[in-house]
Amino acid sequence: MRRATLAVIAITAATVVVTSCSSTAPAKTAAPTPTSAADQFTAWFNGGGKQRITDLSADIQALKVATTPAAKGPICQSITGHIAAALAYGPIPDTEAQLHWGKSLESLRTSATDCVGAVGQTDGVRSVEAQIELEDAQREVRAVQDRLYALAAAAG
């Protein structure tokens, strides 16, 4: 991550020097676009990706300790909102991490749907289905986190 920060600083400094030396009207320059995989990951993670992962991880933990369908209902609604935010934010710029992220979001969507449907039911079938999907999602979120830690370590 330190290399990515130094690279952004160097690019910004070079842009300032080139613009300052120009004898004509300064050209408009766009912000540097991250080019390396590590830089793209850093931008995704620091720009909001970390918050998306944190929100969904907290929802999973809250759902695991909720004991009744009535207690789970609001958490499932929260999951639905956090999934929408994660999808709107955009994909992880790493194929392996995105594969797990996509699977986790799909499992969480199914779990949240079953969870909301289980509120008010007495047979518990949808609640069990929601729990199974939640466990699948939790495995995938852990795989995303493992991959992101590996990418962060590679970035320095």
Question: Could you characterize what this model shows?
Answer:
With 156 residues, the chain is mainly α. The chain folds into two domains: 1-32; 36-155. 80% of the residues lie in helices and 0% in strands. The chain has five helices and no strands. It has helices spanning 2-21, 37-65, 69-89, 95-118, 125-155. Helix 2 (37-65) runs antiparallel to helix 5 and helix 4 packs antiparallel against helix 5. The longest helix has 31 residues, at 125-155. The radius of gyration is 21 Å and the shape is elongated. Mean pLDDT is 78; it is low at 1-31.
Structural class assignment? mainly alpha
| Residue share in helix | over 70%
* Percent range for β-strand residues: under 5%
Largest sheet: none
What's the quaternary structure here?
Answer: single chain
Number of H/I helices = 5
The whole-angstrom Rg is 21 Å
- Name the average pLDDT: 78
Ends: how far apart?
Answer: 5 Å
Gross morphology is elongated
Number of domains: 2
Query: Would you report the number of β strands?
Result: 0
Unreliable stretches: 1-31
Order of helices and strands: HHHHH
List the helices and strands and how they pair.
Layout: H1 2-21, H2 37-65, H3 69-89, H4 95-118, H5 125-155
Which short descriptors sum up this protein?
156 residues; mainly alpha; 2 domains; 0% strand
